[in-house]
Amino acid sequence: EDEGVLGRVAAAAKYVEGVLENWKVGRGRVVDREVLVASKAVSDSFLDRVSEVAEDVGGDAKELIDALLSKERGVARFTGKKVEALCAWLEREGYLDPADVLSEEIVRLRARAGVAKEEGAGLIDGKKMRRLDGAVVGLSSGKRGGGDESVGECVGPEIVVTVEKGKRKKTRG
Q1: What does the pLDDT average to over 33-41?
Q2: Which of 70, 52, 46 has its CA nearest to residue 150?
């Protein structure tokens, strides 16, 4: 009996690990004032204003780059090569993941594929996986995920910004 419980716990843990790994695709680490200082891409004269924008977007690197590139939300005179340098540093250091965010369905399918053997052995089932989805990252809660949000990514000497569902707008530095 203990062996069966341990097997079910191990299967659930493996599934949760798969959900988390796949949920992270396209989502980098949180950007705050300390990160901006460490980047050395934001001078003291721009630090307060760029930090404020980072805070406004919840520390999301993609949204930060999008905001800095927009005329409405950007920081005056912090454009072009300055934004590109910040973008490159954020990507290099893992704060900006250039991959598209995976849809909830893809996150679930990839995680489920990772426990196919355990599912076949009866150690985990679809009902348990759905409960774990919600508990782990709030899938289907409407709070996270999806693949249609705006995306900023560094591409060579230019910054490409996806503004809406696959339509791309290029902005040179």
Answers
A1: 97
A2: 70
